[in-house]
Design goal:
two-stranded antiparallel sheet; A middle domain of Talin 1
């Protein structure tokens, strides 16, 4: 195959016709149709026993994994054609794409909270739960699969912003327990400024990652630009759909077990909406550490700024009295400690080892244990 130009297309590259005949795409469409049809039949006949819901969750998870692979391949192809540093793609396009479930869940909960104020607890719990899941469980699983080298520039630029974003959101919620529309707009504005700065500083970021540039220059493209763009759109659509279906069925199971909204948001919803980050990071870590780290850090900047900011613009967010102590004294502190622990590990030798990944996984499991102890009444907050 001839080496194509960054912005050009080679005759040897495969286009849309070949993409539509690709077995991986056909499998994804089959899973998508199966999930859509079974979901419709289940909803129409009100089949909501736990066994059927688990089957639907398994199908949604399979679709999520295959669609995430599509998305990563397309995003990386477009990034290489544009000569953009892959960590920037991870921090922008991929992180926003994988955060769409969080954005949709929090915005939907906010819009529906007038009839059910407890949905606000679901929205807040979903944001903090997603951050905690991604920075402990997801990152721990990724590192256990393959240790990662951490660039100091990533920590100075993005890691500290991730921590400051969570602290800022916590401070706004702590003052009165409410997030107004003005405060939501401020959070969205901060995120927009961050994205604009990243895009304007792409050349400098790319120059700091010489080996990534060499990888970009030496890599042959097997698909046309149109095919890569199609991968991004199709993969993103199916990933968001499957994640939303998964969260819906997981929440139904939680409701059948009589679990409070705040816990559902932090655990079931937080874990479910973080599955795109997990699958994208697991796929990306084999191909690009820049996309893998960028996806996780970028998503944890997106969630406490853009995701919750949009939800607050839809409707001011407040924590109900029944969930205030649980949220403020357990969920939020655990998230702050988890993020701080993760950043401290990154600064140590600028490398994530399998042992550190195991520690992060254990941290999340301990958090789940504390949540269950509190729910059972053995832990008073």
């Amino acid at each position: 195959m001839l080496q194509p130009q960054i912005m050009g297309e080679s005759e040897s590259e495969q286009g849309i016709g070949a993409l539509l005949q690709w077995n991986a795409l056909l499998v994804s469409f089959a899973l998508f149709l199966t999930l859509a049809i079974l979901g419709t039949i289940t909803a129409k006949n009100d089949w909501t026993n736990i066994g059927i819901l688990i089957i639907l969750i398994v199908i949604a998870l399979a679709l999520l994994i295959t669609s995430a692979d599509f998305f990563v391949e397309g995003a990386k192809g477009l990034a290489r054609r544009a000569g953009m540093a892959e960590v920037v793609i991870g921090l922008t396009i991929v992180s926003i794409g994988t955060s769409l479930p969080e954005i949709l869940v929090t915005a939907t909960a906010s819009a529906s909270s007038e009839n059910d104020p407890a949905l606000m607890d679901l929205a807040v719990g979903n944001i903090y739960g997603s951050v905690l899941v991604q920075i402990t469980l997801v990152l721990g699983i990724v590192v256990a699969f393959k240790p990662l080298d951490i660039r100091p520039a990533w920590l100075r630029r993005d890691g500290l912003l991730m921590l400051m974003s969570i602290i800022l959101l916590t401070g706004l919620l702590w003052e009165g327990g409410e997030l107004s529309r003005i405060e939501g707009a401020i959070l969205c504005l901060i995120y927009a400024v961050y994205i604009m700065w990243l895009l304007n500083d792409t050349d400098k970021i790319r120059s700091d990652e010489l080996e990534l540039v060499e990888e970009i220059k030496s890599t042959e493209f097997s698909w046309t630009g149109t095919a890569y763009f199609t991968m991004v759109i199709v993969g993103l659509f199916m990933a968001v759909y499957s994640a939303n279906q998964l969260v819906q069925y997981a929440c139904l199971i939680a409701e059948k077990l009589n679990v409070p909204h705040a816990i559902v948001g932090t655990t079931m919803s937080g874990l479910g909406t973080s599955l795109p980050e997990l699958t994208v990071a697991m796929v990306a870590v084999r191909k690009s550490q820049g996309v893998a780290i960028g996806t996780l850090i970028g998503s944890n900047i997106t969630d406490p700024l853009l995701s919750i900011g949009i939800a607050a613009l839809v409707s001011p967010i407040s924590i109900t009295e029944g969930s205030y102590d649980l949220t403020m004294h357990l969920i939020i502190p655990a998230t702050l400690v988890g993020v701080t622990l993760c950043l401290a590990m990154m600064w140590t030798g600028f490398r994530f080892s399998r042992l550190e990944g195991s520690i992060l996984i254990a941290f999340y499991l301990i958090f789940l244990m504390l949540i269950e102890l509190q729910r059972q009444g053995y832990l008073t907050i």
